[in-house]
Amino acid sequence: MNLSITQQPINGILGGPKHKDFAVSVNNIAFNISIDQQCQRELSISSSAGKYEDMISIYYSLVTLLMLFDGHFYPVVKAQDGTDITESWNKRALPSYSSADFMLDLGNKLIEFDAVLDAQLFQNWCVLKKELDLVHNMILYCLSSVEMPKDMQVAFMTEAFKGVCELIHVRNPNFALPLNSKDKLELKPAFLAVVDKYGFDIFKEELSQNKDGFAQVLVNSRNRIAHIKSLQNKRVLDGNESVMYLMKLSLLYRIVLFDLLGISKRVYGVALSSRVQTINNHKTMKAFLNSLGQC
Fold this sequence. Notes:
about 300 residues; 4-stranded antiparallel β-sheet; 4 strands
């Protein structure tokens, strides 16, 4: 059985040529995976034993890993399984696999797939993705083109970092969970623990301005989904600021996963620095950073 999916940016082309072939065994089923990129990106998956649903599962594991590298999903322009299934494929696709316009900047790419991708990394990702469970799906929706207000998306994105904090601890017991006196994990210390370990390069300006106030604004923004307006009365992100922090939180999430997958910062450090600088230079971000001292 063979599945071939061709992707291409909207009104653009991909660089190349780039190519990667590898074979993996998932649930005791062998799969051959091939990625060819030149203007378009073609993903080919074949297996002599895998069922169609197995091929679909492998495909979505592959594209979610590529999304971590690229920062967004590319639209599918052709899908084939021996016949042309493009129309039905795109009708079935979940909206979480269509990236929001604020994620589509080419500068959002941190890693070229051919620099790191191999069978071992892919299998490690399959295990990690399963462990993340709904946390990863929720983050994909927060970064998708789904018609949800951005302040709602940033609320759910912020909430996800409790699960991310737990995952880091499970993978690295030396990373202590910041539990309160009742042995419960609260959002603010969980978020700050992740930032302290992984987020200095992303949130350097926020941390130097007002670390606690910055974290509190994000927590307040999350808490809007739990309280009516008359009980809030606290500084929260507005719509434009929410977009800025969806971009920054996505960077934090991606580099946490890179570390858990064993990808060195040397591979993406320069690209990360450039992306953060671009976000920080936006007028909305500059205004927010200037206001942090008043939080």
